[in-house]
C-alpha cells in the first residue's frame, strides 16, 4: 500500500510540474536526413526533439524544419524590435537594425506561407505538386537572401561591438536553420517529382 501511495504522490507531482519521464524516441530517421544538410549538427539539435511528430515522413520533416525556421525568425524579429528601442545606438546601427527588422518581417511572412503550403500539400493534386513545392522553395530561398542582406548591413568595421555580435548571432541562426530546412524541402521535392 505504501508503494502505491508513493507512486501516486510521484505521479501527482509529475502532473503538477508537467514533467514526466521521457519515453525513448528513435531519432535515427532525423539523423539520416540531417546528414545531407549544410549544418547537420544544428539540424539534429533543432529537429530531434520532434522525432515523434516527424515519424518517418519526409514531408513532416520538411514541415517541422520550416516551422523551426519560422519560430527562430519570429524570435530574431522580436529581438531586433527590442534592440531598436535602445538609446545610444550609433546612427549606422539604427539604420542597419531598421533594415533587418524589415527583412525579418518579410521573412516571417514568407515562412508562414511556406509552412501553410507544406501543410496543404497532402491535399494537392499530383499535377499541382511542383507548383506548390516551387512556392516553398522560392520563399525559403528569399528568407536566406533576407538574412544575408541583414548581416551585410553590419559588415562595416565601425559596427564592431555588442550590437553587431548580438544581431549576427540571432540572424546567422535564422540563416542556418533556414538553409537546413530548404535542403530538406529540396530533398523531399526531388524524391516526389511526378
TrEMBL record:
Record localization: Secreted, Extracellular space, Apoplast
The keyword Repeat belongs to this UniProt entry's keyword annotation: no
Pfam family, one: PMEI
Major site of localization recorded for this protein: secreted
Record keywords: Apoplast, Disulfide bond, Secreted, Signal
CDD domains assigned to the protein according to its UniProt record, in alphabetical order: PMEI-like_3
InterPro entries the record matches: Invertase/methylesterase_inhib, Pectinesterase_inhib_dom, PME_Inhibitor
Domain Pectinesterase inhibitor: 25-184
Signal sequence annotation: 1-22
Homology family: Belongs to the PMEI family.
PANTHER family recorded: PECTINESTERASE INHIBITOR 7 (PTHR31080:SF87), PECTINESTERASE INHIBITOR-LIKE (PTHR31080)
NCBIfam families: PME_inhib
Name the UniProt record assigns to this protein: Pectinesterase inhibitor domain-containing protein
Organism: Citrus x changshan-huyou
